[in-house]
C-alpha cells in the first residue's frame, strides 16, 4: 500500500501528527517505509490535506512533531515512482486505443462479409443481335528481314540461325500467318481493304566491311532475292485475301544504300530498296486492286477512314539509353513531326523489337531475329516476328498482334 493510502487509514488523520500515524500503523522510525511516509505526509500537509493541530482554548500547547524537509534523494525517488506510474498509464492507454481500433476494423470487415451474403436483386441481359459488322482495315507490317545476311548459331550461343533457306521458310510462314489473322478478324469485322507495309531493310548490303565477306549475296543479288519474295507475297494476298483494295506503303531502310555513309536529301536516289519498290510498282501496273505509296523522303502518310498514319523506317530516331530508352526521343520526335503534318498513329521498324512504344506508335519486329550485333549491344532476345494492327472504322486503332515467322 502506498504511503498516502496508509495515512488515510487513520481516523481523523487531518488532525494527527506523523508520530501518531506511525504508531497507529505500527511503522518503526528506522525503516524505509517510515521515510516514504514522511515524504507523503510532507506533501499532503503542503496540499492542505493534513492540518497541523492548533493550540487548545486553555492555552495548553499540543506537542507536534516537527517534520523535516524531504531530502533530494527522497524527492527523486518519489518523482521516479510517479513517472513510472504515468508511463504505465500511458502504455495501458495506448494498448487500449490500439485494441479499440482493431476491434472497430474487425467489425467493419465482419459487416462487409455479412453484406456479401445478403440477397441482391438481379436482372437479365439480353444477347446483342448483330445488325451488321463494322468495317475495319488490317495493317500487315513487313520489315527488317536482311535476307542475305549470315547468322551462325555458334556465334550467339545457339540462339538463332539464318541463311537463304531459313529466310525463305520464315517469309512464307509469316505471309500465311498474317492472312490467318485477317480471317480471324473477319468474324467480327467487315474487311474489304488492307494495308501492306514494306518498311525497309529487306537487304543488309555492304554498309560495313565485314558484311562484304559474310553476306550470302551481293546487294544487287539480294535485291533480286527480296523482290521475288515480295512479289510472291502480293500475289498471295490478291489470290487468297479476298480484298477489294490493297494499299502498299513503302519505306527504304538504312542498310540498302549504295554509299558507305547515309545520305539525307538524296537518300532515295542511293537506295537499292527504293529502286526495288519502283520495279514492283511497275510489275503490278495493271492490277486495279493495288495502289502504291513510294515516297522520296523518310515519311509516308496514309489515311484510313478518318485516321492519318505515318510510316517510316525508324533509323532517324536515336536510341536514348537509360530507363527511357527509345521512348523519350521517340515522343519528342513525334511531337515535332506533328507540328508540320499531324498523324494519329505511327508505324516504324529498324529496332528489331515488336512493341507499342507509345500510345500512338507501334514498332515492328524483324524476320532475321537475334544476331551477333544484337547480342553485342545488349538487345533483348526476341524470336522472329512481324506486326499486325487493326483499324476499326468506329473504334479506331484496336487489335495489335504478332505475326510469328516460325
Kindly describe this structure.
The protein is of the alpha/beta class and 406 residues long. It folds into two domains: 68 residues; 271 residues, Purple Acid Phosphatase, chain A, domain 2 (4-Layer Sandwich). 38% of the residues lie in helices and 16% in strands. The chain has ten helices and twelve strands. The strands form two sheets. Strands 1, 2, 3, 4, 5, 11 and 12 form a seven-stranded mixed sheet that branches. A five-stranded mixed sheet has the order 6-7-8-10-9, with helices on one face. The longest helix is centred in the N-terminal third of the chain and has 45 residues.
Unreliable stretches:
55-66
Report Rg. 45 Å
Domains counted in the coordinates: how many?
A: 2
Helix/strand-derived category reads: alpha/beta
For the record, the CATH class of the largest domain is Alpha Beta
Beta-strand residue fraction:
15-25%
**Alpha plus pi helix count:** 10
- In CATH, the homologous superfamily of the largest domain goes by the name Metallo-dependent phosphatases
**CATH fold-level assignment of the largest domain:** Purple Acid Phosphatase, chain A, domain 2
Please give the share of residues in helix: 25-40%
Return the average pLDDT rounded to an integer: 87
Order of helices and strands: HHHHEHEEHHEHEEEHEEEHEE
Mass-distribution shape:
elongated
Number of E strands: 12
Assembly category: single chain
Describe the biggest sheet? 7 strands, mixed
Distance between the termini: 90 Å
Q: What is the CATH architecture assignment of the largest domain? A: 4-Layer Sandwich
